[in-house]
Write a structure and sequence with these properties.
CATH topology of the largest domain: Rossmann fold
Number of strands: 15
CATH architecture of the largest domain: 3-Layer(aba) Sandwich
Helix content: 10-25%
Number of domains: 2
Strand order of the largest sheet: 3-2-4-1-5-6-7-8
Strand content: 25-35%
Shape: elongated
Length: 314
């Protein structure tokens, strides 16, 4: 089966995708004659100038709507163009999964770059958060362009890191200056403290860090506010302790619990809120079906729910 690398460029309208792709295809270091299929999924003010492409070996196919994203169409366009690679300027209003579901066999995502206009990004994030997260979850590089000199890059950094830790970030200012993001991501709590104090607003970050790197927490003691869930199906002396966490929008709010071993004599009410002090261990549990982090409860004080019951990353 012929394998075709796919270069994916995503972002909202007028985010700079077309200009970047145009410049890339004019660069002989990238475009040295390979037959290329360029799929254009939205048309903005900037138009392509194929006469400027190195080698003039690019076939441009414009899609009228997401309904054109079918395996049959993509396969036909690839065959008609005899392409060796595919470049996609993707519509920011379409979900990435729509494209992945339509990709023919042999199409291999090779690079995924995301572009945001730094002047309008915060508005998009506030009003179209689910679409922003959809693009951030899978991209390798996020470019904030057209930034004013006084842009708060820390705020942009936190939004990206709230979704992905592996995404590289670049800031491009209105004068053309390009600055790579080199900010460290210190945790908002002291993991080396005798007792790790996790504030209500930091619980989502704590949960993600603990579940991604549980071994570094083994033997540590934590104090935080959680909601309990009890069930007769749980092993004796065990309950679940956790919070509802939202990644991007209300549709993805999920209760994210940790197996918790109840100390002798401790009474835990179903759905009750508690400030717990617990030692963390890594154990196999039937509740996970595998090995995972476990709270060994030392104390559980009844508490009022946090001001924001649903924990978030941003």
């Amino acid at each position: 089966m012929k394998e075709i690398p796919v270069y994916l460029f995503t972002g909202f309208l007028e985010s700079g995708k077309t200009t970047f792709i145009q410049d890339t295809l004019q660069d002989k270091r990238f475009n040295s004659g390979e037959k290329t299929l360029l799929l254009v999924c939205e048309e903005g003010e900037q138009e392509y100038e194929p006469e400027e492409f190195s080698g003039r070996n690019v076939t441009i196919q414009t899609l009228d709507g997401a309904e054109d994203l079918t395996e049959e169409n993509l396969d036909r366009w690839a065959n008609e163009s005899h392409c060796e690679r595919v470049i996609i300027e993707y519509n920011g209003m379409w979900l990435i999964q729509t494209l992945y579901d339509a990709m023919p066999r042999g199409w291999l995502p090779y690079q995924n770059m995301l572009f945001f206009d730094g002047r309008s990004f915060l508005n998009y994030n506030a009003n179209m958060r689910s679409l922003v997260v959809d693009k951030l979850q899978d991209c390798e590089l996020c470019v904030f362009n057209r930034l004013p000199d006084d842009a708060d890059t820390m705020e942009l950094h936190k939004i990206v890191r709230g979704v992905s830790r592996r995404t590289d970030i670049i800031y491009e200012y209105h004068d053309g200056k390009v600055v790579p993001d080199e900010m460290e991501d210190p945790l908002p709590f002291d993991i080396d403290a005798p007792v790790i104090e996790v504030a209500d607003e930091d619980y989502a970050l704590f949960y993600r860090d603990l579940t991604e790197e549980p071994r570094k927490y083994v033997g540590k003691t934590v104090r935080t506010k959680v909601q309990a869930v009890t069930d007769k199906r749980f092993p004796d002396g065990h309950c679940a302790m956790g919070r509802h966490i939202m990644t991007c929008c209300v549709e993805d709010i999920t209760y994210c619990p940790l197996v918790s071993k109840i100390a002798d004599g401790m009474q835990i009410d179903n759905t009750g809120w508690y400030i717990i002090t617990a030692k963390i261990d890594l154990r196999f549990s039937r509740m996970y079906g595998k090995k995972g982090p476990v709270f060994l409860l030392q104390s559980a004080e009844k508490a009022e729910p946090p001001t924001q019951k649903v924990a978030t990353f941003y």
